[in-house]
Amino acid sequence: MHEYPVTQEIVRIAEESARKYNAVKITKITLVVGELAGFIGESISMYFEIIAKGTMAEGAALEIKPVKAQLKCDRCDRYFDRPRYSFTCPVCGENGRPTEIGKEFYVENIEIIT
Amino acid sequence: METKKVEVIQDIHAENERIAREINADYNRKGIFAVNVMGCPGAGKTSVLKQIIARLPGVKTYVIEGDIESDLDTRTMQALGIETVQINTGGACHLDSPMIAGALKNIELKEPGILFIENIGNLVCPAEFEIGEHIKLLISSVTEGCDKPYKYPLAFEKADIIILNKSDLKPYVDFDDAFFSSGVKGLNPGVPVFEVSSKTGQGFDAVVNWLEEKRK
After folding, report:
1. How many domains in chain A?
2. Beta strand extents in chain A (DSSP E only)
3. Structure pTM?
């Protein structure tokens, strides 16, 4: 349910870009989805087939590039994967802070036929 | 006929955020301070709002109630004389900007004041969508357990204020304060956390003081 409206938006963005290039068809859409974006790739793929029907993106391949969430250490400036139930830097033991890495949710590129 | 790859780099939330900015600009013109109230089902969102609004006698308050079904909370608020409109999402797990824009057609924000928007009871999705608010107020409760910052990090990371409700029940549940606090601090170092009880009203004066200071 949650993924349905965002998948409509993905198709809308892809069609809008394709029209700028006078494309006749979209053959592939590449999405970047961070693990903290809150959207499930499989679910987007499932809705995509249904929503793309009758649009320029009908039958297009959908590639989803996942991004793992990273924290940044306050002390040693390292980026690291968040351990379970803690925020501790594996190198120096200081608390890391959330970063924007892992929150990505955008259409990276499309492949089109012109 | 030619096949080519073209760069797009367009955020999928961009349209939602554009509408959110328009809504926010409209609030600013009207002197409205908008609070996005988030929390899981049963955290006590409506009860917290009742306690807060009761302590704002000189301030015009409005409420938008978001629920999948029913208008129970709207009727509760209206019975207290608070101008309230209902959004029923019919299944959707969060409010978004177009829904708020629709609801704002049904409530006239005539006087400056505070608009509380009670999001869908859900500790996940509401944190992902801007709805034009000035602040996000997160309500957690001791009965949910102290591990929630670790399990639902985005809601805690994005909150501007956290209310820990049902503090009167602490003697009856195993709530590890230190574990909860270190989770909150790890995600959101400066965020104020207020312990309250909607049952007894304890702790709400401090919340209201913070809100009044924030909207200045």
Report:
1. 1
2. 25-34, 61-67, 70-73, 79-81, 96-98, 105-113
3. 0.92
